[in-house]
Write a structure and sequence with these properties.
The chain is elongated. It has about 130 residues and is mainly α.
């Protein structure tokens, strides 16, 4: 179960890196606007907010990735703590999105199910 938890955390980190790219680097492009359902004027008006939000997603991905690397290097306690922190916060942020914006249920589930499963699998495995 530990390997499954780490693999799921890695997948969640990759998803959050993609979200970072969409929000912080290509927010106003047709592709990003299509993913987030925004118009060109909405994207222009929210560009700074999205830039900042994207970095939150990147930082969560980095925490999980460093945790995976440390766990693999034999630093199991520190590595697991970082994986729990990174993936747990991803799942918590998705829950906040789900509760505050029920119309964004699909996005919340895409962002939150895999990291939540990572936390559960890693906890069972340890």
């Amino acid at each position: 179960m530990v390997i499954a938890g780490l693999a799921l955390a890695g997948l969640a980190a990759l998803v959050h890196v993609v979200i970072f790219v969409l929000e912080s680097l290509v927010w106003a492009t047709p592709r990003a606007r299509s993913v987030f359902g925004t118009t060109e004027p909405e994207a222009a008006a929210t560009k700074e907010m999205a830039f900042n939000q994207g970095f939150y997603n990147l930082f969560l991905a980095v925490v999980a990735a460093v945790g995976i690397a440390l766990f693999a290097a034999g630093q199991t306690a520190v590595g697991a703590a970082l994986v729990f922190a990174g993936a747990g916060l991803m799942a918590a942020a998705a829950l906040v999105l789900l509760l505050s914006s029920p119309d964004k249920r699909a996005a919340a589930l895409k962002q939150g199910v895999v990291p939540a499963l990572a936390v559960v699998a890693l906890a069972i495995g340890l």
